[in-house]
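Q: My labmate handed me this sequence with no annotations at all. I'd like to see what the chain might look like in three dimensions before we decide whether it's worth expressing. Could you predict it?
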Amino acid sequence: MCLAALKPAGKTLDKADMAQAHRANNDGCGFAVRSKGRIKIAKGLWTFAEFWERFAPYQQLEAIVHFRLASAGNVTPAMAHPFKLVDGGALIHNGHMARYGYGHISDTAHWVASLLNPLLMQQPGALRDV
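A: Here is what I predict for the chain of 130 residues:
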């Protein structure tokens, strides 16, 4: 199963732990960070060296990190997490959502495209209202 992590601002991730996470879940990785009120996403990273080089400058920022072990969909950069939300946010998911995902599309990509982003287009701020 994938590894998903939330890293608070001011905390750091251990490089050795993240390398182990990548070895066990190497179907693409990525992260999102909040910087100056905006979300920056890096995804579809294939090697741990590439991930760490891109992530290390953001170590002090709030972040979500995902190492994928594919359960549905192709192993491609587009299916790696995080997924961009239309409200400017980002989403990662660990596990499998039944009834979502088919062929080359992962369950999370399908759910975001068919349910969550359309909801956010109709109800801006819906995730902030909970």
